[in-house]
Amino acid sequence: MKRIIVVGITGASGAIYGVRLTQELLKHDYKVHLIITEAGWQVFHEELGWDTTDREKILRTRFNPAGGELHYHTLRDFTAPVASGSYRADGMVVIPCSMGTLSGIAHGASGNLLERTADVMLKEGKKLVIVPRETPLHSVQIENMLRLSQLGARIVPAMPGYYHKPQTMDDLINFVVGKVLDTLDVPHDLFRRWGM
Q: pTM for the complete prediction?
């Protein structure tokens, strides 16, 4: 049976992290449920230069060119299977995670499908990985991360390492995505490990 991961992409800078993670999960034969905020779609246009008027085409060509099992849900689709604790998802990653979404998750707002699904992960004791992308941080944002950490979420800031001697932007992106895959126990070869 395929493992199931939910990927949430918000309007924080670093949309490419969410795209690369989804591609890698599909490449490893995971079933992926994808939720993208409206601000996330805007960031695809601003950061990646994508024409997002045809979202189905973006999902097919940019996220899933190899034809893996990808299910896209809008923020208002509360009938999506991932909105229920009875659905057997293995975990969720919010990458990149805006501070607004972080706050909504930390306080159990469930104001949209992304927040609701993260709430389901917490209540069901499933893996929830948050990849915050903001700098500098103020006390409320740090407190929200602490709150989520205390609830069992893993916080993996989008902070690339340099010991593997990155040569390209892809090397930096792959490092962050690789750290997320490590947190999910997904094998990968996206970066050279220390001492290897």
A: 0.96
